Amino acid sequence: MNHYETVFILNPVLSETQVKETVAKFEEFLASRGAQMVSKEDWGLKKLAYEIQNKKSGFYHLFEYKVEGNAIKELETEFRRDERVMRFLTVALDKHAISWAERRREKLKTKKA
After folding, report:
1. Long-range contacts at 70-76 (CB < 8 A, ≥ 24 apart)
2. Are 8 and 26 in contact (CB under 8 A)?
3. Closest CA to 104 of 50, 39, 10
4. β-pair partners for 40
5. How far apart are alpha carbons 56 and 73 in whole angstroms?
6. Which of 43, 44, 97, 106 could disulfide-link 60, Cβ–Cβ 3.0 to 4.6 Å?
7. What is the pTM of this model?
8. Residue 82 near residue 24, CB atoms below 8 Å
9. For the chain, what is the largest distance between any 2 Cα atoms, rounded to a whole number of angstroms?
């Protein structure tokens, strides 16, 4: 299993329940492919650096997970099919990126406490 991180931006006109349903859909998709979810983060509504589909903001979400490589192509196909997703980026993490992600998660935990 390889370690991946996916960030995706959802359309800002979606309601809170629609956003949750969309995120749950992609979580279930990964789980059905045997993915082990390491971390999920909801970054909320953020302003975009440039307009995408005439929108100036979007709901950002990050998934960090372990899965076989062939599932990534299927996941990205699902992102392209869903009109609620404006952009997405999947990155394979090496050992340095994994340790950085762990430190970032620990820093977030201490901020919330």
Report:
1. 71/30, 71/33, 71/34, 71/35, 72/4, 74/29, 74/33, 75/6, 75/26, 75/29, 75/30, 75/33
2. yes
3. 39
4. 63
5. 28
6. 43
7. 0.90
8. no
9. 39
Give the C-alpha separation, 79 to 104, whole Å.
Answer: 26
Please say if the pLDDT value at position 113 is more than 80.
no
Q: Is the pLDDT of residue 112 over 80?
A: no
- Helix/strand/coil (H/E/C) assignment for every residue in the chain: CEEEEEEEEECCCCCHHHHHHHHHHHHHHHHHCCCEEEEEEEEEEEEEEEEECCEEEEEEEEEEEEECCHHHHHHHHHHHHCCCEEEEEEEECCHHHHHHHHHHHHHHHHHHC
17 class by beta-carbon count within 10 Å (0-12 exposed, 13-18 middle, 19+ buried): exposed
Residue with tokens 């950085």: 100
Task: Compute the distance between CA of residue 48 and CA of residue 81 in angstroms, rounded to an integer.
Answer: 22
Measured CA to CA, the distance from residue 81 to residue 94 in angstroms comes to 29
